[in-house]
Inverse folding.
């Protein structure tokens, strides 16, 4: 969660996005290369040598070296990804000038196809690379991503002379400017409102970005601190506007956390549901329960072209907006669909528990419940469509609504939603588990799912998602877009 923020801060404050992408890509390649070597290099001691008491210490030492190389390569990959992920996407979006309607539409489409590529790559990894690693070679399975990463870096460098590079607005960092506004507002907290209104009027009217009533305490930064006559101690209207715009992102970030909590369920409880059900596709062929996770990516890959080429043009004809609907409307639709996904999961789980009772399988957790795993498809598919709206919408929103120098930081804030959401999901599960067990009762998450009540947990998530959606709509109603 922290690595993308660190990488984005380095990109936006020191190296720049272009240089950070190159540096992160090199680190990424080194990590993948070492990971490949750790899988290809055979152990220095054979199993027969290790049986010799005199060689046990040497074999243990060699094993530890390989383990250290393996984990060191994983950390390198994580660092490379932390710098590459937010900066590459921000740099790609920088190639479109949002001041022109045509390029504004193209930028919105860019976020759609970026996520399309990410999901397509994930599907390739889950299917092709997993097969190669399990059946051919782990070294080859790690080596292919390394080769692709090298090729991607070469292609990126070939386009160096054609890129559009963003420039800083002034010599001061955007973080310094924003921090300066907050410090000045705190120092002037005793300033009476009439004095602030007079200063705004003197400078040419109210702030152009936000209404006076929204975060009005920051307008105190327009005045010099008490006892100071220096104009340098006063913040400009544009700096106060910038600080208000960034502060207005906080409610959107907070109300998106529930979506991230729901996002954590498919790899865990959805899979646990499927493991108890009839997973046969044809006689003699059973699919792994975890393989249904690929349905989210497949649904996303199928939905994005429809959204970009059908939904957007149709809605654009009615709304006259470049992207058809606003980005906040797009995020809200995805939140609604994720809540429906939880409702679907709860209904299916209720039916699964009833089927277990009907066939006398409640106390037989190892027995397959005669209910097809296909019942889970709607909840996976709904979540895949929800991703098209909310995931892509959050990327575009946090890119567009931060100062130009902080675009990478904006995208890392989007990533942090899912990092924090994952922690909150674990905390929520632990809390519910402790609250529902005791007095001889099984918790909602009993090891034997037939004794648990996963359906109650899904209903809880659906209810919390509904509350989240109401709060989100409340805050978005007063949100003013940063133009």
């Amino acid at each position: 969660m922290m690595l993308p923020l660190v990488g984005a801060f380095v990109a936006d404050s020191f190296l720049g996005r272009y240089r950070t992408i190159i540096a992160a890509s090199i680190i990424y390649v080194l990590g993948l290369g070492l990971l490949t070597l750790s899988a290809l290099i055979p152990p220095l001691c054979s199993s027969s040598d290790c049986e010799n008491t005199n060689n046990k210490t040497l074999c243990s030492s060699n094993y530890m070296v390989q383990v250290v190389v393996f984990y060191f390569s994983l950390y390198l990959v994580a660092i490379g990804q932390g710098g590459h992920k937010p900066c590459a996407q921000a740099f790609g979006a920088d190639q479109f000038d949002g001041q022109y309607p045509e390029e504004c539409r193209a930028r919105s489409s860019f976020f759609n196809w970026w996520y399309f590529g990410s999901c397509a790559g994930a599907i390739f990894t889950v299917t092709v690379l997993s097969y190669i690693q399990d059946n051919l070679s782990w070294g080859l399975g790690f080596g292919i991503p390394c080769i692709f990463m090298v090729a991607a870096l070469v292609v990126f460098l070939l386009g160096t002379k054609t890129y559009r590079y963003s420039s800083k607005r002034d010599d001061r960092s955007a973080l310094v400017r924003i921090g300066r506004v907050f410090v000045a507002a705190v120092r002037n907290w005793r300033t009476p409102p009439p004095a602030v209104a007079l200063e705004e009027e003197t400078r040419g009217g109210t702030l152009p970005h936000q209404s006076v009533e929204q975060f009005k305490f920051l307008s105190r930064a327009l005045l010099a601190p008490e006892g100071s006559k220096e104009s340098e101690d006063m913040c400009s209207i544009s700096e106060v506007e910038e600080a208000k715009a960034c502060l207005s992102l906080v409610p959107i970030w907070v109300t998106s956390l529930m979506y991230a909590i729901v996002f954590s369920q498919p790899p865990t409880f959805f899979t646990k549901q499927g493991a108890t059900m009839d997973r046969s596709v044809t006689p003699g062929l059973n699919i792994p329960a975890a393989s249904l996770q690929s349905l989210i990516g497949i649904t996303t890959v199928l939905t994005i072209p429809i959204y970009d080429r059908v939904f957007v043009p149709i809605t654009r004809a009615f709304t006259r907006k470049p992207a058809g609907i606003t980005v906040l409307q797009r995020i809200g639709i995805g939140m609604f669909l994720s809540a429906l996904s939880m409702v679907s999961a709860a209904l299916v789980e209720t039916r699964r528990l009833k089927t277990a009772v009907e066939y006398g399988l409640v106390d037989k957790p190892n027995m397959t419940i005669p209910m097809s795993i296909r019942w889970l498809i709607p909840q996976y598919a709904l979540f895949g469509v929800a991703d098209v709206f909310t995931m892509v919408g959050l990327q575009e929103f946090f890119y567009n609504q931060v100062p130009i120098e902080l675009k990478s930081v904006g995208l890392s804030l989007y990533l942090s939603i899912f990092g924090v959401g994952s922690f909150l999901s674990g905390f929520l599960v632990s809390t519910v588990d402790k609250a529902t067990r005791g007095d001889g009762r099984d918790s909602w998450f009993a090891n034997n799912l037939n004794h648990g009540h996963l359906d109650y947990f899904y209903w809880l998530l659906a209810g919390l998602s509904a509350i989240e959606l109401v709060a989100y709509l409340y805050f978005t109603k007063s949100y003013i877009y940063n133009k």
Strands lie at 277-278, 280-282, 285-286, 369-372. Residues 208-212 have pLDDT under 50 and may be disordered. The chain has 17 helices and four strands.
